[in-house]
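Handout, section B. The chain below has 157 residues.
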Amino acid sequence: MANINVEYINPFISASQTVLRDFCHIEASLGKPYLKQATYEGDILAVIVGITGVLRGQVILTMENKTACDIASHMMMGMPVPELNDMAKSAVSELSNMILGNAATIFSTKNIALDITPPTLTQGTNLSFSVSDSKTICVPLEYGEHSLEVNIAIKDA
């Protein structure tokens, strides 16, 4: 199991908070990051984005369905989103794309070139993923009664 460089975590935290603030008008506070197994319990929506280039691995954005609906509502200027329909799923996928694109830009300012894959969205109950051979760092972001997790499993290529 390879160790993750802590310097690789901050761009994802910064990008997540910036995108949530700028595009969703959500001020998300940072919870305490921790090491995690790639298992997600409950009624979960997960968006998986692959990382290639100087670093490789995945970033998995996970949240409960009610949080995904709330975020989609924020992204659609407050339009009520009572269920996780195709429009809401598309909005959350786009949010993940924006976060990872923003993080890739931050990495580029540090001369670390990354590419990201298109997001893969999955949902279900008690999901389990096999990720690359790097450890997964979970970064909780909380606002109001909602929380989402940015799960980072990357290492040097």
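Note. The chain is about 30% helix and 40% strand. Compare this with the example in section A.
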